[in-house]
Design a protein that fits this description.
mainly alpha
């Protein structure tokens, strides 16, 4: 039964990661108030996808943690940290992708103070950056723990662990070079790396005997 769960969660990890990649492709760049209102349908749809993929990824992460379970239960800690990251992603997606465009659309339908709306947009931006930073830290810590456990338990290919460490090393280099992972392009780079690792892990979980 546990093996069936691991295989199913591996599929979930792949599916959730693929949807997250699709979200990054569809996510439009930021712009003026009129621009946000004009593209609100695309903005809402891309963030609905982002929110939809989170529980699927969480299910996959649960299966990975079960697979890498040891007496120390450190894999459970990794799962909890990962879920914290998913929660922050949900908050950021809801505020900036669902609430903000609807709020602006309603606001410009009647006389409004543009400076107030710009302040609201900046406030939402600060929330987004904070949540993105928490998401990046939580997922990076979780992957580090999982990679160590993969090497320790040998329940997945060690190549998955080495791939994860390579991505984390690339992340450190990018941070050293002052790459901003919280803007759209930087976040796309981070999510792509994260999704590639999760898809690789998910495939090995699905094919595991």
């Amino acid at each position: 039964m546990e093996n069936s769960f691991v295989k199913a969660s591996g599929v979930g990890l792949c599916l959730g990661s693929f949807i997250s990649l699709l979200t990054m492709v569809l996510h439009p760049p930021a712009g003026s108030i009129d621009h946000i209102v004009r593209i609100q349908n695309v903005l809402i749809f891309s963030h609905v996808l982002a929110i939809a993929c989170l529980p699927i990824m969480g299910f996959g992460a649960w299966g990975l943690s079960v697979l890498l379970h040891t007496d120390s239960r450190i894999s459970t800690l990794s799962f909890i940290i990962f879920c914290f990251g998913l929660i922050t992603a949900m908050i950021a997606a809801a505020i900036n992708g669902l609430i903000l465009p609807q709020f602006l659309s309603d606001s410009i339908a009647k006389p409004f103070d543009e400076s107030v709306l710009k302040t609201v947009i900046r406030y939402g931006g600060h929330i987004n950056v904070s949540m993105a930073n928490i998401f990046i830290v939580c997922t990076s810590v979780s992957i580090t723990i999982w990679c160590v456990l993969i090497l320790h338990t040998a329940r997945l290919s060690k190549g998955i662990a080495y791939f994860g460490f390579s991505l984390l090393g690339f992340e450190m280099v990018c941070l050293f070079l002052r790459v901003n992972f919280t803007d759209l392009h930087g976040f796309r780079i981070f999510v792509t790396g994260l999704a590639c690792w999760e898809i690789a892990a998910g495939i090995h979980m699905r094919l595991r005997r």
